[in-house]
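Predict the assembly for these two chains.
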Amino acid sequence: DAGVIQSPRHEVTEMGQEVTLRCKPISGHNSLFWYRQTMMRGLELLIYFNNNVPIDDSGMPEDRFSAKMPNASFSTLKIQPSEPRDSAVYFCASSSGQVSYNEQFFGPGTRLTVL
Amino acid sequence: DAKTTQPTSMDCAEGRAANLPCNHSTISGNEYVYWYRQIHSQGPQYIIHGLKNNETNEMASLIITEDRKSSTLILPHATLRDTAVYYCIVRVAEDYKLSFGAGTTVTVRA
């Protein structure tokens, strides 16, 4: 099992550019989560998908952030335009079943630096 | 509003048991206790969870007090690879959110 796959692992971009982060959840998992981690704010949930449908996007910081899940095996998190304060590590996680206390499996993260 | 309180950091010796405390004095009857850890530069990793009874798996044991106001995660034989930030989280089964606090930074020393 390859686990949750994220790409790219590192991204350096300039302010104002569009950034797209990608995630492939574990096969068979029907829940997908995007988190952001910074030193100041720790780990924060950005958005939660269940069966490819966004259920809770209350953690998405502002309209510059958007997330999609076109199918069960792929999700994207897009930032347009990017700002230096978006610099963080972004994690994707997936879990199985309808029962939410199932464990979440995290990917290795994407370290984003916006100059 | 933090639901759990953990020490900021702790050291332990390689090969010895590491006992990580967590206070959750306001826990509700239907809330579970979860433990995750995050090794440097990696994503968080699930360790164990429990409701009332003590639990054990291949990674650790979870001891929950009878009043459920506190718990202890036990790593039976700590290794250098167990150096990580350990997060204690409480949530109801229906809640998909994992609210990570600051956790305990555990350093295992040779």
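The radius of gyration of chain A is 13 Å. The longest strand of chain A covers residues 42-50.
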